[in-house]
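Checklist before submission:
- one chain only
- standard amino acids only
- sequence pasted in full

Submission:
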Amino acid sequence: MTAEITSRKNELVRQYMNFSSSSRKRREEHCFSVEGARLCADAATSGLKIRMLLVTKEAEEKYGVYLHSIRESCRMEYKISDSVAKYLSKTKSPQGIFCICSMPTEKGKFPAVTTGSCLTVLENIQDPANLGAVLRTAEALGINGVLLGGSCCDIYSPKVLRSSMGAVFRLPIFVFPDTSEAINHLNDLGFQTFAAVPDAAAEPVTAVCFSGEPSAVAIGNEGNGLTEKTKRACGHRVTIPMRGRAESLNAAASAAILMWEMTRRDDCPE
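Returned file contents:
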């Protein structure tokens, strides 16, 4: 490890900040930045290549277990001062561990179709915290993959990475510019496709049979929901029954309920 980096103008510091703040830079260089002991270790243990590690002296002493995993797949390591760590950090209490990672190899256009496959389709999700929360829940519930359609926010933005708690590294994620085309292809593959809508005329999700056939539920933008084109592409429309006065739930809450219903039972409702 070289001498401690103490200047914000250091080229490596600039590089990290570029990947942290610019989705364009991330796409161009096929890299992204990660902050925090656990999240950086998650990236390493999930098989991602760690191009660079920036770490403070205090972090070395405090997070040795996490650093062991990171260093096993790390190409370069540099010590940084506390002031540089504060500058790099997107959190109130920086842990002093920062990495630049290579994006994983892109997966195929669609996940493998198996009996009981469950997919979540997200369209135009703009809130990074919402997107991260959906990915975290999808991984926890055993969803087989997530399709991002339209203009969803960047999954490698710092807010998405933090709120997903590492799910971005492990969950099969597929990106499509046109959600309705992705839905049509799922229909052709034999999936039951469901558009989630805040409409009392739609079928209650608690009455839907998700057992057996592969299923995909589409969830739309926080403010506008699914586009009409995507709704028409789906074979069914489902809604979450609500007893209160709220007209709808936010995307993350809706997705959590819908994914739970998709995965929670073996038998169909009577």
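Reviewer check: The chain has a mean pLDDT of 90.
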